[in-house]
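Q: I have two molecules that I believe assemble together. Could you output structure tokens for the complex as a whole instead of separate predictions?
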Amino acid sequence: MIFDLFQNIGKKTIYFFFRLGEAFFLLIYSLFCIPNFFKSIKRVINQLYFVGFLSLIVIIVSGCFIGMVLCIQGYNVLIKFGAEQELGQMIAVSVIRELGPVITSLLFAGRSGSSLTAEIGFMKMTEQLSSMSIMGVDPFKRIIGPRFWAVQISLPLLSLIFIQISIIGAFFIGVYFLGIDSGAFWSNMQSVIIFQEDVFNSVIKTFIFGFVIAWISVFQGIYCIPTSEGIGYATTNSVVYSSLSIFIIDFFLTIFMYTDV
Amino acid sequence: MRKIEIFVGFFIFLGFLSLLLLAFKVSDIGNLKNDKSNYKISAKFTNIGGLKKRAKVTIGGVKIGYVTNITLKENEYFEYVPVVEMSIKSSIHIPIDSSASIVTSGLLGDNYISIDIGCNDVFIENNGIITLTSQALLLEDLLAKFGVG
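A: Yes, here they are, computed for all two components at once.
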């Protein structure tokens, strides 16, 4: 009986490392084999359109409303201390350092990550990937590589757009509805946000998140079970694993970047 | 294909526009750009309290510069003395008998330096020193005076 337990644990561990090894092979292969640079640029731009531009609506609307909600709730708390002029600082610090990268990455993983997984899994199920390799076309260079780079490029840009839109949304609600002085809003914010520490670190976070989302989504797509049930399972997995990894990595990054360790 | 390229170009342009807006409107890069027309002075204090780098230096409440560095220097009696280096706008001339003090904005706010202008005709040069200083008002000292009795 005890041997069955050991066998179970051993089998799961070996399977985990096997999948990890497959994922690393996939990563190296799809990142570093772009011999013909200019032909691949066209495919990357195509993917940038689907992955980046079509997510703009989601990002802009959520950014605007999150900024406005933060403004109202922050005002309700700060007015008890007579510190409502510090609202700009509070919103800028929370959005630039934490909410911008994390919420953009979650929305992005839910929208583009799941669609990437579904698309690649469907190509595997209808045997498009294997027929491509039979014809001599490398499916990694043609399908996987451009999608990987498109995610890596568009996530930092989307996060910056999210941050800026939420600060502007908060500005409008704060100054025109809640009566905060507009000069105090911007100048308090400028005195507390240091470009090298806050904005730059936020962009670094989004680079790392983009890498993780792209890797997990593409991996789940390629190594899924090629049935319709398997594709559904792989899509859910990619969103769940991406989201959990984002939270865990964000915690460690915050410790490294914002405390005096 | 051309439509797709236009949309992607617009998306990337929007991203870089947000980066520029964040850099110049939201963060502090826009304020530090005219550093070339500033000159440096320093002042010794006995206690700087909660003074931090980039704290403002004011005359009568108007900001004329900021604190660049805070260090400890050893004087001839082998005591450590805090030295605060400041960067002041070139258009502001400070007489050599002015005094600098560290004040708190509000009750529990940040510390900054306030300079009271003297009446001498000679002004402080680049790398000059303000000789008259008074230390920061520490809450603990006040409480000690009232509490011990």
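A: One point stands out. The mean pLDDT of chain B is 82.
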